[in-house]
Amino acid sequence: MHTKNTHKLIKSALSVLLALCLLLSGTAITYAIGAETVLSVSSADTDSADSFNYATAREAESALLGVSRGEHVTVISNADSRLYEASTDLIIDNQTVGWTSARMEMSSVNGDSVYPYRSLYGGLCLSLRYPHSAESSVRREFAEFESSDEYVIPEGPISGNPDGIDFHSVNTLSFAVNLCSDKSETMFVEVYVSEYLVFTERFTVSGDGWNAVYADISGVHNSIYAPAAISRVVIGVENADGDGSGELLLDGLAFSRENASQRYLALSDNISAGASTLDGLHRYTLANTAMDISFEDLRSESFADCSSLSVYIMHTAAPLTAITCSYMTDGSYGSPVSPYEPLTFAPVGGNITVYTFPLPEKAPQSLRLNTEGDDNGDISLLAVIPGSLPCSDAMLAGSCDSCKYNSGTGEITISGTLSQDVAAKYGGSKIYIYALDSWQSSDSATLTPLSPAASVAVGETFSVKLRTDGYMTKKFTAVIRTGGGMLTVFRDRSISPGASKERQAVPNAPLKGISGDPTDAAMLGSGCAALELDISTLLSSEPTANKLTIGDEDYYFRSDRLSELDREIKAYDGMGSSLLLRLRISSTSGGEVTMLCTAAGSGSYLMPDTRTESTASAYTAIIRLLSERYGGKSALSGFVVGADADTDAPEEYTKAEMLPEYAARCAELLRLTYTASDCTIPVYLPLASRLCGGLSADANGNYPAALLLASIAAETKQRGELPWSIFLTVPADASEGETANSDLMSGKDIPSLCDILLSPSLEYSDTPRRIAVYAIPGDADRNTDKLAAGLAHMYLSLVGSRTPLVSEFICASELITRVPSDVLTYMDTSYAADILDSYAEIFRSGESWNALFGVDALSLITKCAVSVKSTAEAPTYLGSAELFSLSGTTADGWRAGIGCVSLSVSDILGHKNALVAKLEDITEPSRRCIRSAFEYTRDLSPFDYLSFDAFVSQLPEEVTEVELDILLYSGSSYISSVCSLTPGEWNKINLPLADYPALKTTDRMVIMLRGENGEYIGSPTMMISSPTGLSTRYEDGYLGNYLAAERTANVKAPLRSLPLIYIMPSALVLVLCLILLIFRAGRRRNRMTAETPGSRYPKDPPRKRYPKD
Question: What share of the chain is helix, strand, coil (3-state, %, to 5)?
Fold first, then answer.
């Protein structure tokens, strides 16, 4: 017994060890080969080729196509509205009427106002809020009955009349569900004939978009033989664990004669494939041989806006040797078409192949797949789905002439040209600009559900300004929406850094891997200006020449008020300020207040009551008018919306018990404003002392800002991430120790708000994207300096935190000029301690920063900063490796800094492997003395020293010496090294990295040029030659291999790959395990051969195998 247990223990241990080794070795191999991608695959794990090796077709459908099959219910995630509509026969016209609920709060919403969860087809859909603690449902009645055997039956097999649906003619009941979150829920569907329940089934719906739910009810037709009508459909959610509630959108209730899910996945339910038949899941399994597979009765709606056809095939042994596709468009089949070779996917170890074919110009009536194989195993046809491929340059309707980012205003300016024919044909239409992530394709299928970042009128030449978060990682595509789809103007254009002058020509073409673009960093804008606008005065109850239609309603605007507003906004053009429109509703203005606000009270910042559809529609019309009239064409940079600190504001804004309702109203107003502006203009929420209880608990019951921000963040997150911002109003002319208006923010409030924004309870997605500070004009005194110090503290704290919480920080120009320029440099906090200590001199003698602001400001800024002195002495080292080489082996990882206009490489002045940066000429007080020249994005942890030569030229004559700043980052920690450079000659730099042992790995190195004592440095040229890493621990061979592995990891490998050093130990352990297993199997075989009938351990009798039911 002891021996047997020991054997079992050894066997279990070996199995676990083998599995671990396989995991480690698989991950390590992934580290070396990188990742592959699959065309049109929705949610597959692409870590390795083996990821596409599936045991069953059901598993492959689930992973690749998002298909979940139950007993009679099929759920398809991320449903395409085009394919869903083409798969059904009768979609009920009025989706939001005729429903009754049980434990659900029910309302109809405009899908376009709840971005990114738009309705399936646009327009109205049903919004349902359900509790987690109990089962809840909604139902819709379709047929009335007078007694148990008398039914109201429609004429024909299926009628468009929703009062009656013939039960025996319906094969599939379908609808679409959107959970408005990333969670999953268990739901159920019930079908009634008369009062009898004839069909019910549970199923699971996932988040992240619309789910098409298909219920096959054909199997219950025999339950009722007499003519009958479907009387009721019930859709519900099972009770879930925990408290609280959830929200879902319901749309697309439909009935079909045939199998609708089959139509969605294969375009047809009339498919023939020789003698093959459908399996129980309506899927074909075919012999891997020559065969014709025909798809008849295709619907043209399936191919709208599509240019390609993707065929998903799974093989059990070997892939097809060849496949072609033929289309019938005018009653006869055309010539066979071969698939796109580069888009055929068949990795080693995988058993899925995706063949992609071009579509004909006209939607096909039928199509035929012609396959060839080697009779080795079977194949399964998973799906046939139309899609779009990126068009070639020859198919583009225009071009992008420039795409630049302006660091002063935070805006991206895109200019382009349209062909004359296109401009003439689509005059009056708009060009829509989309900001896409690097992994998103620029085809119409991807763009359709997205909201554009900006829009501009069609013309032979066009220019548009926009703002977007993470702009340096975005690529931009422009399209014109036509009646039949989208016409691509240009695609996949990345931005280049904007500057006060055009980017200079690069004398030497950069090597692959060197980027000329700056990094995305928190920045301080050139200034903030605010203009108040009473939006009720724009509306007119009488018809005017300025009209805008929203839905079925026409809204008219006063021409005289618009002309006046044009002049007011135009006055800010060319001033370099970010203009924010402070939208308000005043009950004393004589405007059309009742169209926008129904709340009692007489405040000058009344909040539009968007809870009513009429008010929301009128407000949407105003925002759309302002966006189209001024967006991208003026200094307008944002809307400030919501109730502020007006002393006459209705009490409902400030009562503590009203916090949930007020937060919900704020979130809805932010979302409605952002969506109505085509998601192109930032939206700010105002914060002030009275409204927010002075940013802390208030004796009058006013809720604190921390609670308000957290509540609004929770509300906005329910319907997707919303990039909202904060607007602060501070007094610039108050006397010391008091403010002119107690409702305004004070200097002491700013650090408190900063602490709130840095609170661990707020996630990145919750945090406002921009901070705008507006000062009431007045005489500048010591209180203004205090405010400026507070702003410097906030700015440094935010940009020095572990994540870039804000993408932009703007404040009034009178405050900017009073903040020392060294404080406001890009991501440079190396002198923060000295600068912040110097603020104490502004105030009374002996008063410290902590006493003034009540927080340990320096701990937020300098806790991770360590200063290291550079030395010109050559250290003793064991090994070295070039960090940059013109041979290209170590060129990746270098890119231009924020202040670099052009970056080139060269062998120059006897110095090889030189990086040459032409720096931008900046005269702004905040940045005139410093430029970020180079950045390096590889790990330097094996090195103990960084060595290179530096050269600076073309400085102003009065500048005789400059400083070189090197910032080495590891997350939010960094070291800062400073040394002097003599212009016009090469300077040897050796940076000791070992002086900061806590810096185990590095994310980024920034090399900056600074004028001493804040001197203006003009537009110099800076060069560094032969950057080299020196190590006292490792030899040359190891360091070279390490850099090669770093290059591979950054170019190809996924983030979760293991370091290279794990590959060899993992492989060694794997080989040992395999040897042990082989040895053990041999011993067991010898023992079994030697056994006799009289043995102590006789053989077990053979087991019978019975066929499965």
Answer: 25, 30, 45
Q: CATH for 90-257, among 3.40.50.720, 2.60.120.430, 3.30.710.10, 3.30.360.10?
A: 2.60.120.430
| CA atoms of 632 and 149, how far apart (whole Å) | 66
Average pLDDT over residues 836-856: 39
What Å distances lie between residue 459 and 425, 434, 463, 490, 581, CA to CA?
A: 10, 18, 10, 14, 28
How far is Cα 663 from Cα 1040, in angstroms, rounded to an integer? 56
Of 218, 208, 159, which Cα lies nearest the Cα of 179? Answer: 208
CATH 2.60.120.430: which residues of the chain?
A: 90-257
3-class DSSP state for residue 444?
Answer: helix
Residue 665 backbone dihedrals phi, psi, to 5 degrees: -70, -40
Instruction: Give backbone dihedrals phi and psi of 290, rounded to 5 degrees, phi first.
Output: -70, 125
* DSSP, residue by residue, 370-389: EEE--S-SEEEEEEEEEE--
pLDDT digit string, tens, across residues 215-234: 999 889 888 877 778 888 99
Give pLDDT, residue 570.
Answer: 82
The per-residue DSSP string of 132-163 comes to SSS-EEEEEE---EEETTEE---SSSS-S-TT
Give the CATH fold of the 393-497 domain.
Answer: Immunoglobulin-like (2.60.40)
d(CA 84, CA 175): 9
Nearest alpha carbon to residue 729 among 811, 666, 794? 811
d(CA 444, CA 422): 18
C-alpha to C-alpha distance for 573 and 579, rounded to whole angstroms: 9
Fold entry, domain 528-862: TIM Barrel (3.20.20)
Residue 357's nearest CA partner among 80, 37, 36, 39 is: 39
Residue-wise pLDDT for 39-63, tens only, equals: 233 333 333 334 567 888 888 888 7
* Residue ranges of the chain that CATH labels 3.20.20: 528-862
Mean pLDDT of the chain: 70
Answer whether 990's CB lies under 8 Å from 872's CB.
Answer: yes
In the chain, CATH 2.60.40 covers 393-497
CATH top-level class of 865-1051: mainly beta
